[in-house]
Amino acid sequence: DLQDTFYKHWGKSKPWTGNRQILINAKNKSERHKKLKADGLSEEEINKNFAEPVKMKIFTWDGEVEKEMSPLDSIKHYLYFLQAGFMAMEPQSGNILAWVGGINHKYFKFDHVNINTKRQVGSTFKPIVYATALENGVEPCDFVPARRIVYKNFEDWSPGNANDNYDGSYSVKGALTHSVNTVSVKVLKRATIDKTVALAREMGIESEIPKVPSIALGTPNISLFEMVGAFATFANSGRVSTPSFLLGITDKEGNVLESFQRSGRGKRIMSTQSADMMVEMMRSVVNKGTASRLRTKYQLKNDIAGKTGTTQSHADGWFIGFTPELVAGVWVGSDDPNIHFRSISLGQGASMALPIWAIFLKQLNEDKGLNHYTKAKFYQSSGDISYQMNCEDYRDRKSFIDDIFAKILKKRNRPKTRRSKKKRPRKRRWND
Known about the structure:
Elements: H1 2-10, H2 21-29, H3 31-38, H4 43-51, E1 54-58, E2 65-69, H5 71-79, E3 83-89, E4 96-100, E5 119-120, H6 126-135, E6 143-145, E7 169-171, H7 172-177, H8 181-191, H9 193-202, E8 221-222, H10 224-235, E9 248-250, E10 256-259, H11 272-288, H12 293-296, E11 305-310, E12 316-323, E13 326-333, H13 344-347, H14 349-352, H15 354-365, H16 371-374, H17 383-388, E14 394-395, H18 400-412
Antiparallel strand pairs: 1-2, 3-4, 3-13, 5-8, 6-7, 7-14, 9-10, 11-12, 12-13
Helix pairs in contact: 6-8, 6-9, 6-11
């Protein structure tokens, strides 16, 4: 369906119209061009060869088709295809359960899951930013102005919001739910870039992360493999979970020669409280935020948390979601980032990647033997966490007096639960 939508979206136009270099680059990377170049042909002779129709087999979604077409036309044919990567793993054991590197290995020998295959991750990076902030004293119900500002120290960079709304304030949990860019950058500022990068490293992300504010919006290029492994930390109550390929090695009699089963649940890298809060915040993303199509369109009733991601010019669509026992991630885009949908409604992660994730979980739901993954429930949040997350997502404007009374009432009604002895940093006033 997505590929058909892409064809219809472009119609009689071509994705490379206005940027002929896309087609030239694709031709130059082809095996035919490399061979002809190695044989000593000039570029003029190579172009003539590429224009000559020949019989060939090509990939289509209806199966392999034999057709007569020029090599250049075959390159145009393949440039239209959207690619995808998918990975699923157990968050506690780290065992990889599914790995789909692309749409067809015979025709597209490129693994979009592999740690060396990196694309911009968009808003799927935001949970790492918000988790760092929670670990450093930020509360889910802190309200942050949505106002758009200019960062003079970073070449007058001024991130905007998808809905162009810059009025009022969002709670921290509401900003993640609705993927509010202006607030996310301010949350990063409070978390600090250094601490955010440090947490990403502990969560298993090895790719380069530039120390600039735009990482709050997911500008780093990171592999799907790394991102799924990082999200497993949330499902594993704040303990790192390294994706594992091998369970063990046995001989022909079944004797175990080497076991790679992990003992324990992994090193703790964030507090249970912060991890539980992040799970609740990402459940909100699914229940009423950018991933709500899982509930409305796909009618999934499972306990699910997750985050969508969309990159610059809609070149990449992401969705990483999890149940208590399963983490799975999807990336969708073209091999060439210059080829993409021209509208965010079609090119966002919720439109490109989330449907694949939804269909995957629907198929799991149909197999009763997989109930361990699909029927699992997140732990009921403690009274203390429920209290700390008891606020609206968005606030238009509230008078100073109203705010004072709200805080007094909230303090009076605070449940008397045993708090962690870990000293949290003193709260500071949010500003731009």
